[in-house]
Design a protein that fits this description.
- The complex is a heterotrimer.
- In chain A, strand 14 and strand 15 form a beta hairpin.
- By secondary structure, chain A is of the alpha/beta class.
- Helices cover 32% and strands 26% of the residues of chain A.
- The longest helix of chain A is centred in the first third of the chain and has 17 residues.
- By secondary structure, chain C is mainly α.
- Chain C has a single domain, classed as Non-ribosomal Peptide Synthetase Peptidyl Carrier Protein, Chain A.
- In chain C, 48% of the residues lie in helices and 0% in strands.
- Chain C is globular, with a radius of gyration of 12 Å.
- The relative contact order of chain C is 0.18.
- Classes of the chains: A alpha/beta, B alpha/beta, C mainly alpha.
- At the A-B interface, helix 3, helix 4, helix 5, strand 6 and helix 6 of A face helix 4, helix 5, helix 6, strand 3 and helix 7 of B.
Chain lengths: 361, 395, 85
Amino acid sequence: MSCAILGIGSVSALGCGVESLKAGLAGSVAPLIETHKYDTVFGETAVNAYTASINGLERFLPRNALRRMDRLSQMSLLASFLAIEDGGLVLEDRARIGIVFGSGYGPMQTTFGFLDSLIDHGDKLASPTLFANSVHNALAAQATIALKINGPCLTVTSFEQTAHSVLATAMGWLHGGQVDYVLAGMGDEFCPLRGYSTAALNRGGCSGVMRPLSLDRCSHVPGEGFITFLLGKGDVDGSYCRLTAATVGRFDAAADLPHEQVFIAANGIRETAEYYRPILSLKKSVVAYASLYGGMPAGNGFDVAFAALSLRDGIVYRLEDERTATPIAADAGIDCVGFGVGGSCSIITLEGRRPVSGSKQ
Amino acid sequence: MKKRRAAVTGLGCICAAGSTVEETMRSLYAGERNPAPPVLVRTDIEKISPVFEIFSDFTGEGEGRNATRTTLLAIQAAREALAQAGLDAAALKAARVGVIVGTTVGCTLNNEQFCREYRLSQKPDVSPVTRFHANNPALHLAGLFGCGGPAMTVANACSSGTDAVGIAKHWIETGLCDIVIAGGSDELCRTTYIGFTCLMITSQEPCRPFDRNRKGLNLGEGAGILIIEDHESARNRGARALAFINGYGSSADAYHPTAPHPEGLGLRRAMKMALAEAGVAFGEVAFINAHGTSTVDNDKVEGKVIADLFPARIPVVSTKSYTGHTLGAAGAIEAVFTVKGLMDRRVPATLGFEEGEGVITPTVENTPVAGTTAISNSLAFGGNNAVLVVGMPSA
Amino acid sequence: MSLENELKSLIIAELKLVDIKAEDINDDQPLFGEGLGLDSLDAVELVVLLQRHYKIETKDLEQSKEVFASVRSLANYIRAQQDRK
């Protein structure tokens, strides 16, 4: 029940568009990281955070259509427009396209914006627009309107299982025949309250520089961004690769990884670091890219994009210490592994396109 | 290979109308409701809209001090449903069990005190953030019951509960799981109450779905959980199929952030999609559990679509007249009611309704229903439409 | 500044209208639909605007359609309400 990754749209601290991810891998672009200061009970604490650049939405929509959209909505919409553009398809039957979005926190900044409005003006005079935009599915709703998509529309939120939930749902829809294409997107935004929470929870004990493979120390740096995949059925010429499986469970990931190449979603959080240790001791090639996109619950969606790029280009980059590039076969597979705080594990598997032959179904 | 079917083997529900499914159904068939000014919510808004709050004593004993009311409601409904399905901890550990729960409040960090203290530079304690992390409804239930399969919280606003049950059906049919704990849960929340008031869609009188003089909705709270199971594996362990989830349709209006499409285009598509999936004709539907929020816009659009697509005499009920609008839980609670309506061969009256607009007339008394298929509608903010088709086991 | 112009600036600021200036809005131009293009969500935001800035309560949107028709009708309504106080 595999499906094809036809297009990728990315908005992150590396910039916009799928080539910004490629540039991040190759080292020609560094992520934008800003330092914020918070007053906590531990004193003034500096927190580094990845900042996404949102550029070019005006290319797709009149500015007036954006007037009520918050930052997370704009990120998700831009990523989705870019995914469709990247796919290069003319999408005709809009009722046969589904949208499934996911985020760990939802529009948190707008949620607090609504609280601000009722604190500032009183319960009676809080802003209805901010309330409407504070619901998790506001982004997907805006996307259906802007992209004129009438198929199934779903928003999910499962912290570290978010990317899995999004992609498994998309695969289910394609497999079940409800749709021909799916826009599957996921991401989160940084906001001052996330920064403050990071500062207060870290107690200043975090290095502030993401070292995802150094499992012994906290190196979490909060991040933001949104990644959207345009997915279609089967194995399609011109696609990046195939998405062949999305599994989740409380199993021993180290024993269950089918492929030699593994991308882990370790992101400097001590609570989940131990779960990744057995994978590092395998005789496999293991990489982690959270240092390119920053820490966020739905961040492993970016790992899937990096895996798709690696299979398209036949190169896997290692970032630790010295940046190295090693070739990967066109028909190889990559397992993207992510752990939740409770120890549940998701494995999202991508495989290179099958060599073109007459026997294709 | 034989097609896998999504059987319903257990039901659980808690809402203002009752703390169990049986208690709730008794209230419904007795035509009893008790909307009242909110106790959980304090506000300086003078024009009070009544709410459907749960006053029964549910302490959530042994469920962990950090659990939120939304989580506790979900746990209580899940325990009831699991008991009916005859599933204990050992059985859940042995099977591939997924959890899918819809919510709106349960996935939102809207802690006002935290926000106020932060604004005043009072260096608030971050325990609301850690509590928020521990209370994602699906992840919490999966952890509590030791379920190893997918755990997904649906945040599709007011259609979340319906979407959760519909997706559970697909998880069973595609073989992703053998058992799914599916439903929705939402507590009454001050932020939501204020938000709905600002949007001017709450009524200061008890709601009256489909009535020409309706003024808006009343909020409620609760949880509904259904145990959805692969029919064959349920049969192999001796569990009875109460009903089947035979169809699920979902469609986006792509029209407006808060208003439904005036012609209900998305709802029409979702209903057709759900019935097509179930292989059922419009004329075969025994009754419709309508979304029926009692807002001006929703009931106008939903009534029009139902009148266009279905035979004139089909019973239409809005059970929100007993539960209030329980948001992320609504679709799940109403899926429970839809199953019970088919099992009991009757649906309750739609309370508050006096005079229609010449489009549809909902039930005005307990109404007998004949047939083996019923549907449940949900419409949501953002233009989501979700529809379930429920069927009885053939004799 | 006239009440009409003040309202225009408030509407632009609070409804976050872009690429439009107060002087671009005609006093009689319809606010909703084909005119300024406002929608039902803007309508409830306008209710809040009237309450925040002019202490005027709107009870029922259906019954206030004529008041919310244009900047002029809004201004006339505000003046009438203020005279009553």
